[in-house]
Amino acid sequence: MELTSALAWLTTCLLLTLTSSTDPQSLISRRNLLGNGLGSTPPMGWSSWNYFNCKIDEATIKQTADALVSTGLAKLGYKYVNIDDCWAESSRDDKGALVPKRTTFPSGIKVLADYVHSKGLKLGIYSDAGFYTCSKEQPGSLGHEEQDAQTFASWGIDFLKYDNCNNDGSRPTLRYPVMTRALMKTKRPIFFNLCEWGDMHPALWGYTVGNSWRTTNDISDTWESMVSRADQNEVYADFARPGGWNDPDMLEVGNGGMTKNEYIVHFSIWAISKSPLVIGCDVRNISKETMEIIANKEVIAVNQDKLGVQAKKVRMEGDWEVWAGPLTHDRIAVLLLNRGAWLTSITAHWEDIGIAPATTFKARDLWKHKTLKPRFTGNLTDSVEAHACKMFILSPVY
Ligand code: GLA
């Protein structure tokens, strides 16, 4: 080879190497760090934390799986049965593996997974991107990611919630992908729920790493806590999409701290925000009132709509707000929310929602299960009680 053509060849090689890190193909493979195909709609299920905290055992998990089936909730889509913190012994075994707590999970997690699977449900588990979980009762997975991911896969785990307590101070953007890779290596599709509480704006990077990401600190069973989580989560609406969802934390519906109307607001906002619908009460003893809320098929359908676009606040006036977001078939989900202490009249204006004012819609009230008689052009007004909401689907009339 002549010197000039050798130089040209070397230059080409160099250029190829330099551009390969930014070419579309490599960007695609980076985006698919978590290519597990899960979460095309927000996950639905149950978790032990909000009601049971650390007081969990295998009988409770099995009875909950039974109850999800017997109440009909499983059929509505609530399929993940998620064991939260406190399921493991405080020390790993001599091979470094996590050990299910002998006193509370004597049969082991695999047996539980088999049981849950036999009911047509899926089993979720919890770990932490630190040295200990938040309860400090069990080890975290930091430094043991591959081993733990293999253990979870060998047990038949379908969902991993990955918390952020007691870590080494490094960034979640560095720590969480280690578990993503470990999960991918197992070849088992495991839904990956990042739980770093919104610390480093996971909405901005979560899609490459997990199927959902907490955007807030822990919810508690009060109106103030619930609406503030809804507000914080709404800021990130543009980042939710099929395969990756903003997570304002698990549901408190049925735990007793809010009124029925407040729980309806809670469930409606979570649904329209395309949040995971993870029940947090004791479904073994669920009340009729709680069932009326979490088993509302029309509201669930908004959450599970295939378009997967999170609703936003489109107008805020004093104590009231209008939330809206698009659905498939040119429909729009609308929420009229009264955060104040008095009955008030709320108007959704088409121009706020981003639709032509001359368009006519019919409106379906998702809590009354009625299609309203009048057709609406330009706006829709309704009265809403204190700490309550109305939720509609608008369908265009052509
Ligand atoms: C953190 C999480 C909670 C729960 C607890 C368990 O606080 O944010 O959702 O998992 O840990 O200890």
Automatic annotation (TrEMBL):
Domain Alpha galactosidase C-terminal: 317-394
The protein's Enzyme Commission number: 3.2.1.22
Catalysed reaction equations from the record: Hydrolysis of terminal, non-reducing alpha-D-galactose residues in alpha-D-galactosides, including galactose oligosaccharides, galactomannans and galactolipids
Gene Ontology BP terms: carbohydrate metabolic process
Alphabetically ordered keywords of this record: Disulfide bond, Glycosidase, Hydrolase, Signal
GO molecular function: alpha-galactosidase activity
Family affiliation: Belongs to the glycosyl hydrolase 27 family.
Name of the protein in question: Alpha-galactosidase
Record organism: Erythranthe guttata (Yellow monkey flower)
